[in-house]
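job 3f2a | input accepted
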Amino acid sequence: MAKNVKKSFHTGTVKKTIKIKSSKNKVWRKISNIAGLPTWVVDVKKTVYLSKKKTDVGAIRLITFTDGNQIEEHVVAWKKGEYFTYIATEGLPLRAYVATISIKSKSKNLVELTWKSYLNSKKMSEKQFMDFIAFMGAFYEASLENLKKSLEK
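job 3f2a | predicted structure (153 res):
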């Protein structure tokens, strides 16, 4: 019989950075359209607004993934042309999820984008949590590659 695996809360961060050959304005336009996820985020079927607000603090989106899972996210910080921060309130095996997508110009047509998140899990084993962190990292990387491709064409 498998011995009882201790389940507890875990805290971690995921951070991925990519350089995109594009203008800062073009990159910002793409990422700040918070319902435009199906065009670059992996496995997203559709994204709809749950708020009248489409940008800035208070904008809320509902993301539906191809597997049917849904995640509700609220924008909690916004600095036009630089970054926005959002929290997930539903749909993840987490008690807390806060992510920031930020951009900075490296030169006229080179932008560095960073997607960074803090997470705190629901009760799970350490292995389950490490697997989830690895999954999130791969998800960010694949999505950022899609974003880069869509902006560099």
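job 3f2a | The domain at 23-152 is CATH 3.30.530.20 (Alpha-D-Glucose-1,6-Bisphosphate; Chain A, domain 4).
job 3f2a | closed
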